[in-house]
Amino acid sequence: MEKYEWGLVLSGGGIRGAAHAGVIRALEEMGIVPEVVAGASAGAIAGSLYAGGYSWSEMLDLFDNPILFKWSLIGHRKPGFIDSDQFYPVFKRYFPHDNFESLQKKLYIVATDIQNGRSETFSSGELIRPILASAAYPMVFTPVRIKGTLYADGGIMNNFPVEPLLGHCERLIGIYVNPTPLRKYGVKELQSGLAIAERAYSLSIARDVANKLKLCDITISPEPLGRYSTFDIMKASEIFDIGYQAGKEALKKFYGD
Question: What string of DSSP letters covers 168-222?
């Protein structure tokens, strides 16, 4: 693997992934252009668009598109409410060649092999199914079959996939948009099964991620994102703005301006 000046790691976090687009806008305004990207879940979506040459505004448009959470796309007789396979045509419009090799930047996507209980990294061959698999939040989106194996959300076992970039980048930027363990939850916020599942999910990965964030030269994890749930689908623009402001502040601090 060749050496890169800047590497970018993007975490999962559902609709909070819109903050990735905000930070990328801040990076572009500073003239920072990462050449290699690694992403999980929502980070896989944002990362694939970025690696494909799409702008931060096009990333925001996708996160702001309610079709990503359209409950009419029911997964009939499948283990999940929403059928992940129904989103293939949406991503085919963005990636008509459907392969990693057609991207403008090197990309790594992690997904969880739920049959064998392991995290797997995808970086070549077909692109869209690994994206869908990485973003297949358990119980909500159905698992995705790739070469006979079922895969689900990459964040289950690796919500901050820094590993593929270690030792290969002069500088690493990490964006973690799932800071919910940082605050105490009230009883009223935990009144649904989905809310409980989300809270348990974020708590289970918090310690692992905290250690990996230390490996980055610039870490951006906006605390205000803790106010938003994974499926706060009407708040994408607000979340984007939080990411943008946090990105500008982190870069200002890094460069000492």
Answer: TEEEEEEE----GGGSPPPGGGG-SHHHHHHHHHHHHHHHHHHHHHTT-SEEE--
Contacts of 186 (CB under 8 A, 6+ apart): none
Please give the model's pTM, rounded to 2 decimal places: 0.89
Token pair listed for 44: 């896989």
Q: How far is CA 7 from the centre of its chain?
A: 15
Beta bridge mates, 219: 174
Read off the pLDDT of residues 164-189 as tens digits, 9 standing for 90 and up: 999 999 999 999 998 755 455 555 65
With beta carbons less than 8 A apart as the criterion, state whether 207 and 253 touch.
no
**What secondary structure does DSSP assign to 62-78, as a single string?**
HHT-GGGG-TTSB-TTS
- Show the DSSP H helices in the chain as ranges: 18-29, 42-51, 56-63, 88-94, 128-134, 193-213, 236-255
Looking up tokens 């973690």 gives 176
152: tokens are: 């689900």
pLDDT score of 128 more than 90:
yes
End-to-end CA distance of the chain: 34
Positive or negative: CA dihedral 185, 221, 56, 41: negative
What the block records as the tokens of 12 is: 């999962």
Alpha-carbon gap, residue 244 to 152, rounded angstroms: 29
Amino acid at 232: D
**Which position has the token pair 């448009």?**
61
What gap in Å lies between CA 46 and CA 64, rounded to an integer? 12
**Three-state SS for 145?**
strand
Specify the amino acid at residue 19: A
